[in-house]
Write a structure and sequence with these properties.
Layout lengths: L1 E5 L2 E12 L3 E12 L2 E11 L3 E16 L9 H5 L5 E17 L2 E13 L7 E3 L4 E3 L3 E12 L6 E12 L4 E15 L2 E8 L1 E3 L10 E10 L5
Antiparallel strand pairs: 1-2, 1-15, 2-3, 3-4, 4-5, 5-6, 6-7, 7-10, 8-9, 10-11, 11-12, 12-13, 12-14, 13-15
Amino acid sequence: MAFDAGFLYVRPRFEFGHGQPHSSWLGVEVNPIFTDEGVAAYAGARWALPYFQLRVGGRYWYTFRRSYLTPAESYTVEDLERLTGPRSRFLTWETELSLSLPLGPGSLLAEVAGSAVTGVDEGYYVYEETLRVVVDPPWVYRARGGYAWALALDGSLQLGPIVEVIGVPRRGTFVLRAGGIVRITLAADLEARGTFVPAIITPDPLSSKGGDAFLLGIRYRWATGP
């Protein structure tokens, strides 16, 4: 089990499978998400190896104060908050492959993912709450790369740069994000995490809603067995 909590969000993750917890295992995971803007639930399968992880699953979002968006060339934060259409709710199917490969004084980080956003009323766009991008359904692709330097001898402090590209083919647009991450190991099962990856190039000036900006949180992990 992993438990993430931070500024205005709570994200417990329950994992059931066979193997070495948090390292090499195959199983399923369930991930409810609670934020000030909506609630969601993710369920899927995960295959984890020491340096690679593959997950496949679906995530359903129900928002508290958003509606679907009328197609337009660009959107602002005010557009997202304006309740002018049907209530925003959708199901995103996602496949993601990630790696964390020891290299030099740290680790090389990479992720590639493909998503299909479904359940949106015909003729509307939707703001995908997890990807933080406006989508003309269904397709979205994402690629992220970076490097985490281990600045402490025991690896308890890691930080480094991150670059991410998200593409929305049916809108003919993409978002380029860049920034950094920091990870601080407080105990064997407790970690403080910070992410600052704002949008650098985007068709939609969404401020902090257009990227992972100023995300601060705590992750606690627990498992049965050795």
